[in-house]
Amino acid sequence: MTVIKTKIGRRSFLKTSAALGGGIMIGFNWLVSCKSLNPEQKGVSIPKEWFDINGYIKIGDTGMVTIYSPNPEIGQNVMTSMPMIVAEELDVPWDHVVVEQGVLDEDSFRNPQTAGGSNSIKRGWDPLRMAGAAGKRMLLEATAKEWDVSVKNLSANNGVIKEVNGSRKIGYGQIASKAVGIDIPKELSLKDPKDYKLIGTSQKNVEGPKIVTGKPLYGLDFKRDGMLLAMIEHPPAFGMKVKSFNKEEIKGMKGVHDAFIVDSTYSEKKWNGTNAFPQLIAILGKTTWQVINAKKMLRVNWENVSELETSEMHEERLIKDLEKGEIKGSRKDGNPDAAFAKASKVIERTYTSPFIPHNPMEPMNFFADVKENSAELIGPTQTPKAMQEAVSSLLNIPKENISLKMTRMGGGFGRRLYLHFGLEAAAISKKVGAPIKMVYTREDDMTQGTYRPAYRSVYKAGLDKNNNLIAFSVKGVGLPAGPVYPNRFPAGTVDNYLAENKMSYTNISTGAWTAPRSHFTAGAEQSFIDEVAEVAKKDPIDFRLELFKKAINNPVGKKYDYDAERYADVLKLVKEKSNWGIGDSSSNKGVAAYFCHNSYVAVVMEVVLKENQPKIKKVWCAADCGIVINKEGATNMIEGRIIDGIGHAMYSELKFENGSSVHKNFDTYNFIRHDQSPSEIEVFFVENEISPTGLGEPSLPPAVGALANALYKATGTRLYNQPFVKQLQMSMS
Amino acid sequence: MASLTLNINGEKKQVDIDPNTPLLWVLRDELDLVGTKYGCGLSQCGACTVHLNGAAVRSCVLPVSAVANQPITTIEGLSEDGDHPVQKAWIEEDVSQCGYCQPGQIMSAVALLKNNPNPTDEDIDLAMSGNICRCATYVRIKKAIKKASKL
Fold first, then answer.
1. Is the complex ipTM more than 0.90?
2. Contact between A205 and B101 using a beta-carbon 8 Å cutoff
3. pTM of the predicted model, to two decimals?
4. Which residues contact A344 (CB under 8 A, 6 or more apart)?
5. Of the candidates A184, A628, A663, B57, which lies 20 to 30 Å from A273 by C-alpha distance?
């Protein structure tokens, strides 16, 4: 049992009030409460804004518990797993719980109500437990007062409070309204993980029934009476800007309400304010089809404002800046140059990956209704608060007057961290003076940018005559930022180590894409390690375990970023579960392990050749994300990111000609499909009592490395350049 | 503009519309049936899959004039209470992540099972490969189709 205090200074994390319709509302703070339990954060001064309440639970007089999930739902299933945490500590049966999407609070709290960085569960863990525990405690106190007994003589279980040595019992719903006015407990007891009844079980997606019956859940489904439909045309190439267009002709088309050039440039710049095309043509009309037709009739004068780039140029820049690019982040242990010079064997390999779009199935869209001094925004966003602030800056309307409602998102993968689509919708609504829903076509979406950057890294390893790894270096560069994490594995495991992360440049806009940088680096590093193990005549898992042993017992240099024991443990678990090295020696298995977003994932993949084409037969995965909240949901996350990792590394790329993406829709852009997906994935979790960390991303990066290593076993070809299918076609033809 | 009678989910609907309008936009914009999704507009992703005379078709490239008076079923009309065996199997296997593509996946799966009540893995791959799932729930979709075939 953990006992925690509910106050920092004089302020409580919790507030209560009577609920509309009977019962009690318990509000809790998201960020403060989780910071308070983190020993590393002791002594941090907390800005007072953080004390605003932004998550709520409601215990109704029927005993139903409504949990307002403050975080956006992007498909990672936090609308199910976060309320499970509350329900565990509140001690209510799961079928008494309903979940609703919270809105962005209009108060000025500084809270990351954000879906990104695999952080929702990690950040939510403490505040959600506290809210549930506070609710239970207050219901107990209200009952004690009502019956004139001590709280010690009461027990709470499955939504019912009972007298320990008596026969009286009462449901949460019957006592809930009496808990209004009970003082917020000064201390709360949280359950021991051993006593969990709900956490660690499998509960189904709370929105599953709505999804399979086609209910209007997504931004694209939203409608408002009197709303106009808006579509945009952005420049056809990075480096171009709109000058003029056949406005009168377009405005004269059937069903077209208006057409104009709109500017969504705003003054207050943010990291996710990336937008290559702030000036757009907007066309408004009644129906989507009429506006699509008007869009096809556009004749636009574009002007060149910067260089029109090509894929060949990108390759030249990456080669040049891998040597000459500005270093942003590095680490050096020992004397790598000297160690390489005396090594018996030196292996050097270069890895690349292309630009990749996010391509969520639901294209960018947003609803905006801008009035003189207020605005209403509704749509899919991973960063609602940043969106509200950016629109406030764009429209010069106080953010208190801007409401933002989050819809379920038809995927994001990082794409909806960015702000431009909400800004564009707001700018269009303001200019036309009506409520509008702005919708991108697939082509608008795939050619707009914010791509995963293109990367190039060179890895080098030196082995002594006994095949010990004595030197290791990695230099990586990206367009525009490099992929290297200097303090991650194998930092700490090699006496002579160098890592350099370098910058290049591009006018193509780039952004965070599932497991940023890790998706490429894990693939490159883990296939390089595999090749080094082979040269050293060692089993690839044993070779890695030897390195982790060194990091545990005799670490090199300053602190490294990972926990070597947890890293080694996922490898050991996947080794056992995949029967690695046992039985059929002709089976083509590849392995990889990676740490990112505070979680550890190891993957073994088995590839068979079918009519001379590789097919992934089976995948085994071992993950350590601390305590698993919803086992089935967590497994689903892991499976999806593994297939996603395989798909993008194997098939996907975006090539450029004259500043323009050559691929504009799914007819030429290749994407993993049913028949290319693995037949079976088995997922295993390390069981421990460590506070939970993210799962939205961490299984994607190791899938890339395991794929490359399994494909090598099956085909004899080492894969250095994504998409792998191109290199395989070349080598297999 | 043309006045057309559509037979959607067993109901007759009258629409006055440009006859070239793809069925997808008639469903979404005119009839408030937004379960059928837009993904690509080129029949490449399957998010817009509906049934025409019981067969799976891509509504994003199907002019509404070509389907007047013919029975069309959308995800909303698949069952009264979301209890079609394929919908139930989707819930039981907890298939969805973002969920956006799933109505299209379900419509393709229902059409497959109608013609082939016990599909093999290869049959499923063949019938379903026109439906992209960006969250990559493919393994679960396959399990759900097999489960539905037994319900």
1. yes
2. no
3. 0.94
4. A463, A464, A465
5. A663
